[in-house]
Amino acid sequence: MSKENIIDIDEDFDFGFSLVDESELDAVQQAQQQVQSSSAAQQEVVQQAETTQQRLDKLFNMIMPLLNNLAKNPEKEYIMWPDRVDKIEAFRDRLTKVYKG
Predict the structure, then answer these.
(1) Is residue 47 predicted with pLDDT exceeding 80?
(2) Local confidence band at 60 (pLDDT 50, 70, 90 cut-offs)
(3) Residue 29 and residue 75: Cα distance in Å, rounded?
(4) 95 with 62: CB under 8 angstroms?
(5) CB 51 within 8 A of CB 101
(6) What are 63-88's pLDDT values in tens digits?
(7) DSSP 80-99
(8) Dihedral over Cα of 45, 51, 57, 63: its sign
């Protein structure tokens, strides 16, 4: 074998691994499982927050036209609202449906 084929390896070269006993390995595996379960729980919380935000946005968009219409013509003292009870009940049903999701 010629000297050109010999690989020069530094004695301090680190291959990137270390030896562990079974208890250390178990601890690392448990930590990895906890991280994975925490990540899954976090994703679920984020999904719930997004769903809740969508419902809030929908409720807001349902209520704002009512308030805007009520604010029209503030100089008039009375509001003419035919079939008020039927329309309020229908709106209440829509709000309840969005609220309960």
Answers:
(1) yes
(2) very high
(3) 71
(4) yes
(5) yes
(6) 999 999 989 988 988 888 899 999 99
(7) --TTHHHHHHHHHHHHHHHH
(8) negative
Q: What is the pLDDT of residue 51?
A: 93
CA 28, CA 48: separation in Å to the nearest integer?
30
Q: Which of 15, 16, 17, 36 is nearest to 25 (CA)?
A: 17
Of 75, 67, 73, 71, give the one whose Cα is nearest residue 91. Answer: 67
Q: CB within 8 A of 70, min separation 6: which ones?
A: 79
Query: Per this entry, what is the length of the chain?
Result: 101
| H or E stretch at 25 | helix 22-71
Q: State the pLDDT at residue 88.
A: 93
Any idea what the Cα angle at residue 53 is, between residues 51 and 57, rounded to 5°? Answer: 120
Crossing angle for the helix pair 84-100 and 22-71, nearest 10 degrees? 170
Average pLDDT, the chain: 86
Tell me the pLDDT band of 62, cut-offs 50, 70 and 90.
very high
